[in-house]
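Notes from hallway chat w/ T.B., transcribed later so I don't forget. T.B. wanted the structure written out for a chain they're using in a teaching module, and asked if we could keep both sequence and structure tokens in one place. Agreed to drop them here.
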Amino acid sequence: MQRRHGWVAVAATMALALPALAGCSSGDGAYCATLRSLTNAPGLRSPDPTAGTAAMATSLALVKKADATAPSAVKKPWDAVLAAWTQLAKIDFSSATSDPQKVMDALDKVDLSTLQTELDDIARDGRTRCQVDLNAG
């Protein structure tokens, strides 16, 4: 199996999906507030694998909250993001320098095949529902 992703690419993909959020429409306040919180989670853009692992664990709770508060239009995409994020949070990225194969093997077990499509759906909805551009930043 050809490995087309590294821990940096996965972290970057997840981080790019969640930048610079702004206001929300009425009725979606909790959901939009959670999206804003995701962009403020510490270490999401850090190149340090150890900081990235800590950030992943911290932001997992926010991803769970976004999934729990997601409107029905984006519930399925958020379920997919949560599933991938849960798997990614279990990976010990701090071993990337000492045992990169271990990290690559763990990443191979994460289903990232449709993640970009799901993130695009969430971004489109975020622009409409919360007046935010999830692709900015």
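Follow-up for T.B.: The mean pLDDT is 73. Might be a good example for the class.
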